Amino acid sequence: MRTWNNTNVPSFILMGLTDSREIQLALSLLFLLIYLITVLGNLGMIMLICLDLQLHTPMYFFLTHLSFIDLSYSSVITPKTLASLLTSTKNISFTGCFTQLYFFILFGGAECFLLSAMAYDRYVAICNPLQYPVIMSSRLCCVLVAGTYTIGLVECSFTVLSIVRLPFCSSNVIHHFFCDIFPILALSCHDTYATDIVVYLCGSFTLFGSFIIMSWSYMSIFSTIMKIKSTSGKQKAFSTCASHLLGVTIFYGTTVFTYLKPKKSYSLGKDQVASVFYTIVIPMLNPLIYSLRNKEVKNAFIRVVQKRGGPKQLR
């Protein structure tokens, strides 16, 4: 069987989500709307936090980077998906495909550990409130954020380098709407056992490592909340981490379902639905979750609008 790799590159062909032209048009309109909301929501969150001094706290410092990651994460996948849906061009170059995969894993891994850093921040705020300003210093926050990007960079480098070196069969059709790990591995003529080990080790380290940190943080948080005698105190403490807990549950639920299972159990239909959710929908949901359920963000928005509208009123 004829094989090829990055030395003689025919481009990959992304099969997409459906062959029906009517459904493609409907999906393109839906995804475009979601992407616009994602861009506006995440950019708006970043600008709001930068403009309002009262939001210059560790929690919102992490939230700024979460918005940046979500915006980047979505931009790696959605524009190409929209182009494939709206045009007859399904091709993506070998370099373009693995570049997309690289940044997809980079931002995905970074988001996992950023969510862990946010969980630790909530743990310190609830369990050690008096020491919170000392523990969550600007230096520690910067170190935690730098660590999340570094881990994502290392993970994506090992994963992509282990896949890109494989020889591929004459078929270059990827049965997915973007360049994902398992659909690409399915095209290889070579035994992918060693590559599978690398993929699962990297994925398990990221998901389970960050999950252990979050589990420990929230067990400590819930233990502290249960010791609070007043009901209003419990509600106030729980409300400080409710948005984060909701975002974590949605993100990890779909990610674990897709990646931490045997490759043989890969199901095109179910996995594509899950992939649409965590690559396109979740980046839109996060700014909504953290803004609609947060009075501080709402009040900050009002302050910024009033501040910007003040000079105009004087004129």
Describe the main β-sheet briefly. 3 strands, mixed
> By helix and strand content, what is the structural category?
mainly alpha
Distance between the termini: 76 Å
Helical proportion? over 70%
The total of beta strands comes to: 3
Question: What letter string, H or E per element, gives the SSE order?
Answer: EHHEHHHEHHHHH
The radius of gyration is 22 Å
Per DSSP, the total helix count is 10
Strand content: under 5%
Instruction: Name the poorly predicted regions.
Output: none
Report mean pLDDT, rounded to a whole number: 85
Shape: globular
Lateral arrangement of strands in the main beta sheet: 2-1-3
Characteristic terms for this protein:
315 residues; 76% helix; 10 helices; 3-stranded mixed β-sheet; mainly alpha
Give a verbal description of the structure.
It is a single chain. This protein has about 325 residues and is an all-alpha fold. Helix content is about 75%, strand content about 0%. It contains ten helices and three strands. It has a three-stranded mixed β-sheet with strand order 2-1-3.
Short description:
This protein has 315 residues and is mainly α.
Write the layout of secondary structure elements.
Blueprint: E1 12-14, H1 21-51, H2 58-86, E2 91-92, H3 94-127, H4 132-135, H5 138-164, E3 173-174, H6 181-185, H7 193-227, H8 231-259, H9 268-292, H10 295-314
Parallel strand pairs: 1-3
Antiparallel strand pairs: 1-2
